[in-house]
Specification:
The chain is built from 16 helices and 11 strands. The chain is an alpha/beta fold. It has 2 domains: about 260 residues, 3-Layer(aba) Sandwich (Rossmann fold), CATH 3.40.50; about 120 residues, Rossmann fold (3-Layer(aba) Sandwich). The strands form 2 sheets. The chain has a 7-stranded mixed beta sheet with strand order 1-10-9-8-11-3-2, sandwiched between helices. Strands 6-5-4-7 form a 4-stranded parallel beta sheet, sandwiched between helices. The chain is globular, with a radius of gyration of 20 Å. The mean pLDDT is about 95. Bound molecules: pyridoxal-5'-phosphate. The site of pyridoxal-5'-phosphate has 20 residues, from helix 6, helix 10 and helix 14.
Length: about 400
């Protein structure tokens, strides 16, 4: 495969923009209030990498460390807990104001919820979030994983009490399989991507992610000029983009979406500019397991196409470079243990500032000594074996 850094820019000059009010202050406040009601809730740290910024010739680079989220080593619990709670509140006919962890623990409600079974498909992180949310509320959960998924991630899901198994499918077919099982068995599909006739739960998951943006803005204490967001199906970056678009309008930061070459469905869709979604089929073998999705979520793409500025597709080594940088900080900078999908955005920022052959892209994105950057390390070392192969043994050297 010819792997290289490829980019496309979308200018948002004409036409009607998609509605992002679902990520406005009301929705964010509901998500934040719910998450704060969880006994394990704590904002994740924002690592200010001052020496790295100075070394790269940037004003600031801060990385939100989602390895610290709910003890799950990834951000996904934000979406699973919020969407499951919303579903359960609806099931119990509870008003939204009563949708708190405490209310949902009342014995009479726990008893009524015993018949609810969740199902999902996952590369690992979302499934771990589902298993954890099921445990929080006393539900059963079935989790199906794509062919080639990490045994360590499977074990982590099983460790939380869910039924989990590998399938022979890629991610997108595993999603179809989980949806079919939901239909056949009467289980509740909690999936982090949308498809025809299935949008409400993925939207709730995305709204759950707005807590992350809200925390980041409280901690950043200034307006970033640039945000770099990694994409699988696009739900995470679209939720964060939607948050910034609705809260800050034209004053929002420049938003760059990053994907692996091997699963760059959103980049391809943006590059084609024919209004169609472009998919990547077959087996996807990127180390960025969380980003190894071949089909953009339609509700995510609607937002990204109107509000995200740059779409970049990168080789595997860019993620490995980010993992090594974040795991081996300069001078007094804090260390961030960042996994493959978590580190790719930092890897790209460093490469843009160091590689002269990418000057054109650095200038197009507008990075310079005054830039204030926000990246999200969306996971820690969720596959510790691979983490060490990259960080200790030098797997995927740069270039
Ligand atoms: C660690 C990590 N980062 C980023 C993503 C991308 O999220 P999305 O698929 O919503 O674009 C995922 C998705 O599984 C993930 O696990």
């Amino acid at each position: 495969m010819n792997e290289s850094i490829k980019a496309v820019h979308l200018a948002h000059t004409d036409g009607e923009l998609s509605d992002v009010s679902a990520f406005g202050s009301g929705a964010t406040a509901r998500a934040v209030t719910f998450h704060r009601s969880l006994p394990v809730y704590e904002p994740t740290p924002l690592a200010d990498l001052k020496c790295l910024a100075a070394g790269l010739g940037l004003g600031r680079i801060a990385v939100k460390d989602e390895s610290k989220r709910f003890g799950l080593n990834a951000f996904k619990g934000l979406g699973t807990s919020y969407s499951v709670a919303r579903y359960l509140a609806q099931y119990l006919d509870l008003p939204e104001s009563e949708m708190t962890y405490e209310t949902l623990q009342k014995p009479e409600y726990r008893e009524r919820l015993r018949g609810v079974t969740l199902v999902t498909a996952t590369d690992g992180n979302h499934g771990r979030g589902i298993a954890w949310a099921a445990k929080l509320f006393g539900l059963f959960a079935h989790v199906f994983m794509p062919k080639g998924s990490s045994p360590e991630r499977l074990a982590n899901i099983r460790g939380l009490g869910a039924e989990a198994a590998f399938t022979n499918y890629n991610y997108d077919d595993a999603v179809r399989y989980a949806a079919q099982m939901a239909k056949e068995k009467g289980w509740v599909l909690i999936q982090d991507t949308a498809f025809e006739g299935y949008t409400e739960i993925p939207l709730r998951i995305m709204q759950g992610y707005t807590t992350l943006a809200h925390e980041a803005m409280e901690q950043y204490d200034d307006m970033p000029t640039h945000i770099f967001l990694q994409a699988g199906v696009g739900s995470l970056p679209a939720a964060i983009t939607g948050y910034f678009a609705t809260h800050y309008g034209e004053k929002r930061p420049v938003i760059t979406i990053v994907e692996p070459n091997r699963a760059d469905c959103i980049y391809r869709t943006a590059a084609a500019s024919d209004g169609e979604r472009h998919i990547v089929t077959g087996e996807i073998n990127s180390i960025m397991a969380g980003l190894s999705c071949g089909e953009p979520s339609p509700i995510a793409w609607e937002i990204l196409k109107d509000y995200a500025d740059h779409f970049v597709s990168v080789p595997e080594w860019v993620a490995a470079k980010g993992m090594r940088i974040l795991g081996n900080p300069l001078d007094d900078d804090p260390r961030v243990v960042s996994g493959e999908s978590g580190a790719v955005t930092t890897g790209l920022v460093a490469e843009l500032m160091q590689n002269r052959s990418l000057d054109y892209l650095r200038d197009r994105i507008g990075l310079n000594k005054d830039s204030r950057i926000l990246c999200i390390s969306t996971e820690g070392d969720t596959d510790r074996t691979n983490y060490r192969r990259v960080v200790w043994d030098g797997l995927y050297p740069s270039y």
